[in-house]
Structures are given as C-alpha cells and as structure tokens.
Write a structure and sequence with these properties.
This protein has helices spanning 4-20, 34-42, 59-71, 82-97, 109-112, 117-120, 138-142, 167-179, 195-198, 202-206, 232-244, 253-265, 270-290, 316-330, 362-373, and strands at 23-24, 75-79, 101-103, 125-127, 150-154, 183-188, 211-215, 226-230, 297-299, 307-312, 332-333, 339-340, 347-352. It is of the alpha/beta class. The two termini are 17 Å apart. Its cofactor is pyridoxal 5'-phosphate.
C-alpha cells in the first residue's frame, strides 16, 4: 500500500489524466475547477434576478416544493447532508413509535459511513434482518427477534452492488415491516434512477414509505445536499430537528441551484444511463473473457441502475495504475480507482455510466478493456 505522500501524488496524477481524457464513461466531481463549477451554476434553470435565500426561503423553498411534487409527497425539507437528514428522520420515527430500534442492512450507509452516529448522536440501536450481501427478504424482516420501530431500506443497496429488490419484493418487504408495526423509511440517495428496474414512476415508489431521503449530488450532479420527503406533519417535525442539529444554514442558494439543475437536466436522462450501463456490462463480460483474464465478475450481471461493480483477481494498486497508464497513454478512461474486495488478491471497482458514456459502443468497450488488460 502506498504511503500518504505517494497516494496524494497518485491522486493528483489520476485527476490530471481523467481531466485530459477525451473518452470516458462519466466525469468525476474531482475534475471540475472552481471556475467551471461557478459557470455551470450561472447556467442553472432559475431566475437569476430573483432574491437569494435566507434561512431556507426563496430558491430553497422552491426546491423543496419541486421534490415533493416529483415524489408525490405532501412536503419535503432540504438538508445540507444526507447523514443529517437520515439521522433526524430515524430519530423522529423513534419518538413517534416509542421504539429506538432500527432494522437495517449492515452494509447500509448509516452503518458503514456515518461514524456510529445513530447510537452516538441519536441514542438509537440497530438490528440486522440479514448479513448476506443482498437485500433482505420479507421473511427475514418478519423473523427479527425483537421489536423495532423503523425499517430502513436502502434503494439501491450500494455496497452490495447497487442492488434493488423486484417491485413485488419491495412491496412484500414494506408489508413485512408494517406487520411488525414499524415505520418504513427509504434511504433513497439513488432512488431517482430506480424507476427503470421497478417499472414504476417515482410517486408510486415513494408512496410505499412513510418517509424518503433523496440526494442531490449522487446521481443528479449537484454540489451537495439532500431532502426528506413525507407527510406535512412529519416534515415539519424534521425541520425543528434540522435547526437543533445545526442544519438551518443562512444561505444555500448554490446547492439549491445545482440541485434544480440536476432535476431539470439529469433526472430525465437517468433511464438512458441505465440502458447504456446494461450494454456496457454485457460487453465488459465478453471483453474480459476474450482478453484471457483468469477470473472476473460483473455484478449484478444486468445492472439494476446505471452503476455496478467489477471484480478482478489482482491487487488494487496494480489495477489502479494500469487504468492510470491507459488514460495517460491513450486518452481513454474506463476503470478508475480499485479497492480491496473480499479475500486477499481480489479487487473491486464501480462503473458509473452518465452522459459521456452514452456514445460508447460494444466495440469501444472491447477496445478499452483490451488496452487495460495489456497494462495490468
């Protein structure tokens, strides 16, 4: 493993190569300069002569109205981060149900990436319906050995490969939670792109839950920020806690502008990204086999969203460096960073297909994989 200085230098080299590349499946947020980001904000679909926001009015209130409309809920509240939004949602449900226990997957975001905040900050406790690397089943939810006040479902489950249940499975999961007298909360950071897999519009999906969290930067390309959506009474309660948690920010118009731009520009494109991801995944499986890689896995075989995992039997640094050389030498970025995955000797990465990847063909994928494998 590289030391800190070497890793910093490699990150700078990676970003420079990604930025200079003419061919890529997506663009990393690291690539944009301050000037470029400001220029994109100025092009956002909003009246630039309107007043800025003060403590959540104006453009922030307009964003909240737009999210509630898209999800078919009575109200929505803007939050500076998804971590804050979800902790507050779960805290509010614990107060309403009288039960501080939250049932969720151990690979979900609150368990892996929030510093034990559910217990440390909010005094909540968790139980796991399953530890398998998949969505839980209704039977597992029903078999949890103690009462729980809230069932949280991450849609899609990112760490397991951006996995979604089927529509029938999701409805059964919700019903299983309700039979346990639990509130249902959707961790929908990437819910926006789930409509293709479910074959249902956003209001029908969100309508299964008592509350829904959505992100503005993970799929929509915003600067940051999130929203909680649900009944008017519940959302008003979350606004009270937002202030207590320090989330009542004086001005947030840059985040709101970028979020509105994402809803206007990226949201309609997400179905095409999902379709393209499925083509890329199929061509990638064929290309890896043709290149003679001893073992590989594209997971899931048919992506549920426009993001999916790739597993290869090499050390992560070796694969990251191969992708870096490919970008520098050919001007094409296919794989980016790799991480350790599972047993020693295996590495995993995520592929994300957005607007730059729509022009790729199966032949392009085969050529890119061949060039990458030649540099391992």
């Amino acid at each position: 493993m590289s030391d800190g200085n070497e890793e910093t230098e490699r990150t700078a080299r990676l970003v420079a190569a990604w930025r200079a590349a003419g061919r890529t499946l997506t663009r990393s947020p690291r690539e944009a300069t301050v000037g470029e980001s400001l220029a994109r904000l100025a092009e956002a679909p909003y009246d630039m002569d309107a007043p800025t926001d003060i403590y959540g009015d104006g453009i922030v209130a307009e964003l909240e109205r737009r999210v509630a409309e898209l999800l078919g809920t009575q109200d929505a509240a803007f939050f500076p981060s998804g971590t804050m939004a979800q902790q507050i949602a779960l805290r509010c449900w614990a107060g309403r149900t009288g039960n501080p226990v939250v049932a969720l997957h151990p690979m979900s975001h609150p368990e892996m990436w929030e510093g034990d905040a559910l217990s440390t900050v909010s005094g909540l406790r968790v139980v796991h319906p399953t530890t398998e690397t998949r969505q839980p089943t209704p039977e597992e939810v029903g078999a949890v050995g103690e009462p729980f006040g809230t069932l949280i479902l991450e849609l899609p489950l990112r760490e397991a490969g951006f996995l979604l249940p089927t529509w029938e499975e999701l409805r059964a999961l919700v019903e299983a939670g309700r039979e346990r007298e639990a509130a249902i909360h959707f961790d929908g950071a990437r819910l926006w792109e789930s409509t293709v897999h479910f074959g249902r519009p956003l209001p029908e999906i969100a309508g299964l839950a008592d509350s829904v969290y959505v992100s503005f930067y993970k799929s929509l390309g915003g600067l940051s920020g999130a929203a909680l959506a649900g009944s008017r009474e519940f959302v008003e309660e979350t606004r009270v806690w937002r202030h207590r948690y320090g989330g009542q920010i004086f001005r947030q118009f840059p985040q709101a502008l970028s979020a509105l731009a994402g809803l206007e520009r990226e949201l309609p494109r997400l179905p095409s990204y999902v379709a393209q991801a499925r083509m890329v995944a199929g061509a990638l499986r064929e290309a890896l086999a043709k290149a003679g890689v001893p073992w590989s896995r594209v997971h899931p075989e048919e992506p549920h969203t426009h993001q999916f995992q790739v597993w290869l039997p090499y050390e992560p640094d070796r694969l990251t460096d191969a992708g870096l050389r490919q970008a520098e030498e050919t001007g094409t970025v296919f794989f980016r960073r790799w991480s350790p995955g599972g047993p020693p000797g295996l590495a995993v990465t995520e592929l994300d297909i957005t607007e730059p990847g729509l022009s790729w063909t199966e032949s392009d994928v085969h050529d890119a994989v061949s060039a990458f494998v030649a540099r391992i």
